[in-house]
Amino acid sequence: MEQFNYNNELSGKIALVTGGTKGAGKAIADRLLQAGATVIITARNAPEQENNNLYFIASDLSTAEGAQKVVKEVLSGYGRLDILVNNLGGSSTPAGGFASLNDEDWESTLHANLLAPVRLDRGFLPQMIERKAGVIIHIASIQGKLPLYDSTLPYAAAKAGLRNYSKSLSNEVTPKGVRVLTVSPGWINTTASEAWLGEIARNSNSTVEEAQQGVMNALGGIPFGRPAEPAEVAEFVGFLVSPRASYLTGTEYVIDGGTLPTI
Length: 263
Known about the structure:
α1 packs across α7 (230-240), α3 runs parallel beside α4 and α5 (191-204) packs across α6 (208-218). A seven-stranded parallel β-sheet has the order 3-2-1-4-5-6-7, sandwiched between helices. The relative contact order is 0.14. It folds into two domains: 14-188 and 229-255, Rossmann fold (3-Layer(aba) Sandwich), CATH 3.40.50; 190-227. By secondary structure, the protein is an alpha/beta fold. The model has no long low-confidence stretch (mean pLDDT 93). The protein has seven helices and seven strands, in the order βαββαβαβαβαααβ. Belongs to the short-chain dehydrogenases/reductases (SDR) family. GO terms for molecular function: oxidoreductase activity, acting on the CH-OH group of donors, NAD or NADP as acceptor. This is Short-chain dehydrogenase. It comes from Chryseobacterium taiwanense.
């Protein structure tokens, strides 16, 4: 059995983290960097705090051109990619259920949350398969199983599609040496979610703590009593892409503090 260096277990690996400038994506990028990987991050806008140890590519992955730009720049600059973390995602559609959504709402959400990973996988998989090595992580969401129809209908549908696609892709490429895994977080405590809670509190004339409890109630409760911290998600992703997880593939892992009511 291969011997692992736990202190620098990703040394020599090239990793790409999409949406790697903020929130869970930033935490994942930092975690892979700490494990010795060469880490590339991509987002539409540069990170607020520059880290010279991370290579940044500005790109809009909600477009086919943006995905092609990233694939071309990574492969031309580094020659290969060992680890792909498809973390980019989010919802900016209006609340109000199906009647409040138009085609543009649906299309923009599906492009960012489903088609961006599909395009990047398609771009990077050939060289992984040729080398019979590689790990792809799809960051989905518990909303793939627990949709909030009033506020995030397209997002929930896209993440459900991502979960199904990830399993199908794993069945195809695992025999060719590439591991594919899905990580589905629940609510994560990010600067964006803090701003969102502040907006809820102002609109409802309540405290931020009351707003947070209201969101947890809407999810059916979080037994752990709080959202996840980005570093908690990143730590698990760091394990999954490491040699220690060499037999894990085709599986979805939920990080939700017990939110989902069923197993």
